[in-house]
Write the structure tokens for this entry.
Amino acid sequence: MLTGKHKNTKVRAHANTVGVAEVKIENLMALVAQEKEGVKIPDILVERLKPFGPRFVKVEAPRPGDKRSGKAPVERSFQNHPFEADDPSLQEWLAAGGNYGILLGQGLGAIETDTKATTEKLESYPTFTSRSGSGRGIHALFRTDATENGVLLDPKTGKNLGNIQVKNKIIVGPNCHHYTGGTYKIMNDSPIAWLSKTQIEEIFGELVSWTGQRRRELEQQAGEEAEQIGFAIPLKDLIDLSEMQIITNGEYQGSHPIHGSETGQNFCVNTEKNVWHCFRCNSGGGGLMWIAVKHGILKCHEAQKGALKGEKFIEALKKAADEGFDIKLWDERFTSRYAEKSLKDIGLKKKDVKIDQIAASIILDEYLKSQSIGFV
Ligand SMILES: [Zn+2]
């Protein structure tokens, strides 16, 4: 027999289900209505951006409920051909319900962030600022001497808290539509203020991580990885480059194959330097690091110098061997930590063998063979 309590639970659950459905239909209706109206670039924004030359880019229209929609530029070489606000083809695009973006670079930057701690730091800064269509995030425009993009990362978890965009990036502009049915709105229409690289570092402290600097570290790290394994596991054999945009010789940019991208541009691969770089997490490395991320041995944001060691390193090597790469185990770090376990597994004791690198390598090969891992 149902008690009153049970009945109430049932009624509440039912009401919730109806509530969710209603919100979705409302979103859909709002988006349909907005599409009819089109998007208007605010006059004040046009005025504020005038000193920077043409800065507008066509951005795809959002699709209801699809959180990855409504933010990516529609033209592949958008960086090279930004529009003036009154350009007829841009106006036609906006009238049909398309969104627009503001192209950053050459002295114009933006910080976008949506966590409480970081938005509070930015909200008080007197510059042109808008609120994202979700109602949570803010976008602040500024003039700057910073020449490389950056991210705001939680120093403990490595999670992305925001992006510092100063080169070849866009932010979605005010009056654009959001997939939730919301609209991007101007919060502060002040002139675009100066915010130097040093000031950014002062405001956000240890959260700031510059991508150019990280990229150089990643290239070095990818080189060390290749040295350690004996060759570079080619990224072009691991990542489908056909969907990515060629930026320069050997440099490809596109959507992160594992955790995706809202803008379709958060991931790059350089096939000549054999390095990958995720801009959202400011992480990356060589082929083995990619294999570790692809197989869930490391989360993307964990792919940092020193992360692939010990058992995780061995696990990644095993996966590399599974994928058909000619992996020979050769690492000083194995000898102390793993040789003993390997010896035990094949019925020997440490005192029976003098463990130098060669012996350890042979033992490990034997061990891995005995584990049917398929090493040659
Ligand atoms: Zn990532």
Remarks:
- Residues 256, 259, 278, 280-281, 283, 300-301 surround zinc ion (CB under 6 Å).
- The chain has three domains: 37-195, 209-308, 328-376.
